[in-house]
Specification:
Blueprint: H1 10-19, E1 21-24, E2 28-34, E3 41-46, H2 53-70, E4 78-84, H3 93-107
Parallel strand pairs: 3-4
Antiparallel strand pairs: 1-2, 2-4
Helix pairs in contact: 2-3
The structure holds 2 RNA strands.
RNA sequence: CGGGGAUGGCGGGAAAUCGCGGCGGCCUGCGGGUCGUCGAGGAAAGUCCGCCCUCCACAGGGCGCGGUGCUGGCGAAACGCCAGGCGGGGCAACCCGACGGCACAGUGCCACAGAGAUGAGAAUGCGUUCCUGCGGGAACGUGAGGGUGAAACGGCGGUGUAAGAGACCACCGGUGUACCCGGCGACGGGUGCAGCCAGGCAAACCCCACCGGGAGCAAGGUCAAGCAGGGGUGAAGGGGCGGCCCGCCCCGUAAGUAGCCCCGGGUAGACUGCACGAGGUGCCCGGCAACGGGCAUCCCAGAGAGAUGAUUUCCACUCCGGCGACGGAGGACAGAAGGCGGCUUACAGCCAGCCCCGGACG
RNA sequence: UGGGGGAUAGUUUAAUCGGCAAAACAACAGGUUCUGGCCCUGUCGUUCUUGGUUCGAGUCCAGGUCCCCCAG
């Protein structure tokens, strides 16, 4: 993921978490809020409840890959925070990608391809 | 062939496409693009020891607190490593040990059982004397026998005695000590002497010897918005109430307001510390070894919401099904955050040579 | 990064200086009652785990696991 597409500042995370629209399932939570830039920015949170350092790194990298593949299909100008819940530990990329894309549809930021 | 012991090492390999981080070159419309190169571990882990580094404190000595505890060597140091001694376990190879002091400072504890748990003591027994209703009883001596316990002033034989006892004697065991021999030493072997025998626990208080200042990279350093402060210069104004004017109030009028210029300290923030080191690899030399020395060669992660990911093919390995061709499934423990030396803990599977025991065959 | 504390029956807590692991409630079984409750009796433990010291460890000493708290 390129650096300008990342959400990096603590204040940004706080703003999205508090004011953003939330969608969740058993594996993931996403918060979406309008950003100040013409493109999207993404942030990922993998807390200690997800598992060991190895498990957290694994999930974070899979989420990055899923967001990379999903990025072109999303409406731009949003800040998105993805939070991993304990149940995602050990899941495959394909399964995570499917769940993530469904949550993005619920949040209404997927481009209308029809 | 089967079982066991110790040591060292590996932690799948090759390739393609998409993607990420650092550094360097080139290009740039300063957003980035492109090429090259490097990019997790043996434990990166737990943070249990120690050191480097940084800041603070510091005449010297004592007390206190904490740590270590057989000997020699290695090491920057360590609750570290190597070799050896002693003790314990195992048929053995080997393994394990906080391994100074409880007789030469003192205190404490040792449940239950037992006469007695350290200057403590006799219920039974044995012996002598006395009493007797002949069943036994009392006093004294004794600590050998039996009995208790995890543990009981040593064991066996004799002398001795009323019965006995290290009371005495020889031998053995153990303790201390003097000398001799071997060893740098811990210690081992031998000879003589002593008192005749001294229980265990110091991961009980403690004593002895040695060691230890305190904090930590969020240490510390550099730059530095804003706010507040100081100095210089300096129009006489500046500010509040209010929609605006008037008005009123506050500060100032040279011991000087606004503005402008300068100054040090320093918050947010940025940069640094932060990757050439007790460094890796190969060969040679010294040493039983830990390790040391020499030469050659290499540059090898460095983030800051935090880089190693995804997909596919082939090969190797393990398991399952199958006579087979083949098909299917699987791949441990675990992720750098200043660095280094150790310890400890986790770990699928595999490799190498060595040693011990048992069996079979030649 | 540095420091402190804890883990005992299903739950909440005890256990003196190392000497037979207790109490209450809950659960289960039995008794009492026409039935239920109350009541009575009984049952239920890897003292977090692995080693060590000791004759003997919940207690003392190490290693490990998990949880809580404090400072920056």
């Amino acid at each position: 993921m390129q650096q300008h597409l990342r959400l990096r500042q603590r204040d940004d995370f706080q703003r999205v978490r508090e004011t953003g629209h939330t969608c969740q399932d058993h594996w993931l939570i996403i918060n979406v809020a309008p950003g100040t830039l013409p493109h999207n920015r993404y942030g990922i949170i993998t807390g200690k409840r997800v598992g060991s350092a190895v498990a957290r790194n694994r999930i974070r990298r899979l989420l990055k890959e899923a967001l990379r593949l999903l990025h072109a299909r999303l409406d731009q100008g949003y800040d998105v925070v993805v939070i991993a819940r304990p149940a995602v530990a050990g899941q495959s990329l394909a399964a995570i990608q499917q769940r993530l894309s469904r949550l993005c549809q619920q949040a209404g930021i997927v481009k209308d391809t029809t």
